[in-house]
C-alpha cells in the first residue's frame, strides 16, 4: 500500500504503525499493529483511540491483511473481530461497513485498499470542513473549554473540536482554551495539553471539577467537545464528564457545541438510551498508570463504577457542528438526524 503519515497513524514498509497514546506526552513511541490481535489490544488499552481514528486504523489493517494474501473469509472474520473492539464510537462500525461492501467487489483486495485510503482522505477533509463551520461560531477574544482529546491524535486530519479551536486560533479569535484533564484516563491532561502546546494555542489545564467555578466567574465563553455517537434525536455520547459540562453550561447560559463528522452519526439509534456505553476496568479509577508510572490510592477492595462515556441530551446542545453544516436545535427537532447524512 502507498505510504501514509498522519499525526498518529503511519503506513510504512507494508506495516501499520500507531503512535502509542498511552505513552504520550512523556514518550513518542510507535507500535506495530500487524495482526488483528495486536490492534485489538492497542484499541482496548487506548494506545489507539478517538472515534474516527479507531475506525481508520481498523480499516487500514484490513487493507494490509488483504494485500498480504489473507483469504477472503479470514478478512471477513477479522472485520467482525475489529468491529467489536470498542462498542460506543460508531465510526468504527460505519467505516467497517464500507470495507465490508468493498469485500463484495470482484477485485476485493484492491477495492479494500482503495476504500481504506478513501476513508483516510475523507476524514482529513471532514475535519477541515468542521473547523471552518465551527470557527465561524467563535467570537473574538473567546475563552473556550474542551474535554477529552479530539485533535490530530484522534483523527486523520486536524481533529474535530480541537480542529475548530485551531482554525479559530489561526483567525486570531482564541484568548485561551481551558483543558479539562478528563479523568480517569487523562486524555485532556496528557494529550490535549500536549497537542495545544505543539499547535501553540494558549491553554490552561484544569481538573474536571473546576469547570463549574470557572463558569460561575464568567471565565468560559463556550464549550467545545467531540462525539462518539450522535443518535437520531440528537443525543450525543462522548467521553464521561461531557454531560456534566453540558448541564453546567446550560445553567450558566454558555453555548455548548458538539463537533463531529457525519461518520459519528447513527440514525439507527433512536436516542441516547440506545447507545451502548463501554464499561471499563476498575484499575482506571482506583489509581493511574502510564509512561509516567503507576499509582494506586483506593482500598484494595473498593467497588468501582467506570463507564467510559456518558450521554448528553439534545436539549442541552446549542449546535451540532458537522462537516456538512451547523445543525440547529430546530433542525434536530424537525428530525434531521433521523435520516442518513453525508
Ligand atoms: O475513550 P476515548 O479516548 O477514545 O474517547 C474519545 C472521545 O470521547 C472523543 O471525544 C471522541 O472520540 C471524539 S474524537 C475526535
Polypeptide structure, described:
- 37% of the residues lie in helices and 18% in strands.
- A seven-stranded mixed beta sheet has the order 7-6-5-8-11-15-16. Strands 1-2-3-4 form a four-stranded antiparallel beta sheet, covered by helices on one side.
- The chain is built from eleven helices and 16 strands.
- By secondary structure, the protein is an alpha/beta fold.
- The longest helix is centred in the middle third of the chain and has 28 residues.
- It folds into two domains: 123 residues, translation initiation factor eif-2b, domain 1 (Four Helix Bundle (Hemerythrin (Met), subunit A)), CATH 1.20.120.420; 196 residues, Translation initiation factor eif-2b, domain 2 (Rossmann fold), CATH 3.40.50.
- 5-S-methyl-1-O-phosphono-5-thio-D-ribulose binds next to helix 2 and strand 10.
Name a few traits of the molecule:
binds 5-S-methyl-1-O-phosphono-5-thio-D-ribulose, Rossmann fold, 2 domains, 16 strands, alpha/beta, 7-stranded mixed sheet
